[in-house]
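Sample entry (168 residues):
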Amino acid sequence: MRWCPAVVLCLAGACAGSVRADEAGPARVHLAPPGWESSYHELHYSPVVRIGDRVIVSGIPAVEGADDEAKARWAFAELERHLRSAGAGLEDVIELQSFHVAADHAEFRRRIAPVLKVHREFFQRHYPAWTAVATGALYSKDASMELRAEAVVGSGRRARAEVAPPVE
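Predicted structure, serialized as C-alpha cells:
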C-alpha cells in the first residue's frame, strides 16, 4: 500500500498537535473556604489545593478558643471544613503535621497534651501518619499550634489497619 504524502503529513500533524487528557496531568484547583479568601488574595497562598484525588490543606492556626484545648478543637473543626470544600473528609486524611509553640521539650509535652485529646476525638479509627514539631513562633501571633494535612479523596472508605493488637 502506498501512502499519499498529504495524508501522512495530515496524520502526523494531528497526532503532534493533540494532547490526551491523561497526558495533560490532573487538574489543580485552588480553594478557600468562606472566611479564608484573604489568605489567597492578600497573603498569596491557597488554604486548600486539590490535584486529582489528592488534597493538601495549608497550615490552620489554632487561634479561636479560651485555652489550648479549645483552640485545638477549633483548628481540627476548621481542618474538616477545609477538607469538605475539596470533597474530602477527615476519614481521607493520610498525613497530619502539627506545629506547636514551645521553648523546650517539657513545654512541648505540656502543649501537645490537649491536642492529643482532641486528635482522639476527631480521628477515632485509622489514624493518619502524624508528625508533631515544636517551634519558637508561628505566623499567627496568638496561635498555640497549627495544623497541616494531606488527604486522598475516598481513601477512608476502604481503610484498614494491618497493625498488631495492643500488648496488655
